[in-house]
Amino acid sequence: MTFDSKQFLSSVSTSPGVYRMLDEQSNTLYVGKAKRLKARLASYFRGQLNTKTQAMVGRIADIQVTVTRTETEALLLEQTLIKQLRPPYNILLRDDKSYPFVFVTDRHSYPALEYKRVRQRSDDGRYLGPYPSSGAVRESLALMQKYFESAIVKIVSLPTVHVPVCSIKFSAVAPLASIISLLKIISATLNTP
């Protein structure tokens, strides 16, 4: 079965988003992002391509597109899908450093929020994100501190971690559900240009 690029491109959105190129067995070959999906995807089917890209395009049986609200959302979704699916034609982001998350745990008598960069999530709490930058995480944590006035901020440098860990601990008057709800609102605001 040959992929009909002209028919496909006639219905693709011009919005930002993420695309997954699939082979005949529905295995993901490549995950990419675009500010304008139609223009980016059209570039694969015209002009000169390097040998590796030509080989990949020759194996395409289908392309799945996810439209996002912003280019930042597309970047974060692309990074998540590459780490999850490990497509053979994505070599740069698979082993690259991870994006930062806010880690929420209730392993103490009151919830704690921490800045974390993770390659694999563990089951010891909730990971909110990923965020586009460490500055966005720190801004979220600062807003949480302002909202919950009883918050105590503590920067801890661990011997095995090269980046300081920012931890915010809250009193019992700030239930975990409230913290997570507020953090999602802050995160959505920071991820919108």
Automatic annotation (TrEMBL):
Q: Quote any Pfam family the record assigns.
A: GIY-YIG
Q: Which InterPro entries match?
A: GIY-YIG_endonuc, GIY-YIG_endonuc_sf, GIY-YIG_UvrC_Cho, UvrABC_protein_C
An example of a Gene Ontology cellular component annotation for this protein is: excinuclease repair complex
> Which residue ranges run through the membrane?
none
Q: Is DNA damage among the key words of this record?
A: yes
Is Oxidoreductase there in the keyword field? no
Q: Name one GO biological process term.
A: nucleotide-excision repair
Q: Which intervals hold domain GIY-YIG? A: 14-91
UniProt keyword list:
Cytoplasm, DNA damage, DNA excision, DNA repair, Excision nuclease, SOS response
Q: Name one GO molecular function term.
A: nuclease activity
Question: Domain of life of the organism in this record?
Answer: Bacteria
PROSITE patterns under this entry? GIY_YIG
Q: What is this protein called?
A: GIY-YIG domain-containing protein
Q: Which organism is it from?
A: Vreelandella sulfidaeris
Lineage of producing organism: Bacteria, Pseudomonadati, Pseudomonadota, Gammaproteobacteria, Oceanospirillales
